[in-house]
Please model this.
Amino acid sequence: MLSEHIEPFDNVFLLTPRRFRDDRGYFCETWHQVNFEKTIGRSVEFVQDCHSLSRQSNTLRGLHAQKEPNAQEKLVTVYSGAIWDFIVDARPESPTLGKWAKAMLSEENGRQLFIPAGFLHGFVTLHENTKIHYKIAGRYSVEDAVTVNCFDTALGLDLGSGPFIQSQKDLCGISWQDFLAFL
Model:
């Protein structure tokens, strides 16, 4: 498994599992606990797997997070299609608070993004019928869940060109300043 850090964060990893190809296609081990923990340098207890389908290109989901004590960690994999995956550092004591990064994840490149606790997460689909798999550490807590408006100029995210397809929940996301007060 190849790995690299997503700048400017030293604890966010872009992982590329090895693919074994032949004329039939490929085989890939997308999850191996020991190898994963060696790569990121610590233990993570994933407790839930989720699957997402976005039928249309330019579907925008996020930015989502949960505050402590129920902050979640995620390992994101695209099984069909492609996304720009966005993260924003939302850790109150972090020197990179409010900084963001994005990575392209696709079926083609096979990359996975490990997002530690304390980051907002969202994505934009680049193809129709994009399928995403999440391994999640931490339980869902409606009381601790928050959605931040992707278009808040205080964040300055480069989302690409719209128009975007969003849920009502995401359209009504709070501002970055209100999120900081939420923490």
Summary: The domain at 2-182 is CATH 2.60.120.10 (Jelly Rolls).
